[in-house]
Structure to design on (108 residues):
């Protein structure tokens, strides 16, 4: 959505659209395992997801968050995979800082 971010992304030599079948299956089976074991996740978790993410499933993140005992989930409608690189990046970072501040307050 930000042309400058898109240009930088396309120019990055580490960015590509290839994934081996082995890596795909590893990611897929690990995702299934994570969903099955979400209720056992022992730590506070902030899970942020772009609602228009074409790479990973917002629905799967939502489902994980519903199963995890101490998970704060926020879906950002209209944002894509790298929510920290969207025009709303300051709002995203503010959300992270607020969550961390609240967590520190819980622990101290």
């Amino acid at each position: 959505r930000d042309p400058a971010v898109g240009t930088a992304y396309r120019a990055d030599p580490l960015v590509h659209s290839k994934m081996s079948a082995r890596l795909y299956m590893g990611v897929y089976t690990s995702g299934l395992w994570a969903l099955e074991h979400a209720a056992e996740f022992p730590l506070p978790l902030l899970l942020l997801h772009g609602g228009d993410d074409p790479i990973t499933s917002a629905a799967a993140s939502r489902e994980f968050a519903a199963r995890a005992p101490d998970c704060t989930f926020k879906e950002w409608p209209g944002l894509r995979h790298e929510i920290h690189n969207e025009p709303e990046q300051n709002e995203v970072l503010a959300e992270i800082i607020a969550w961390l501040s609240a967590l520190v307050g819980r622990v101290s």
About this structure: Residues 20-107 form one domain. The chain has one domain: 20-107. The mean pLDDT is 95. The first helix runs from residue 3 to 11.
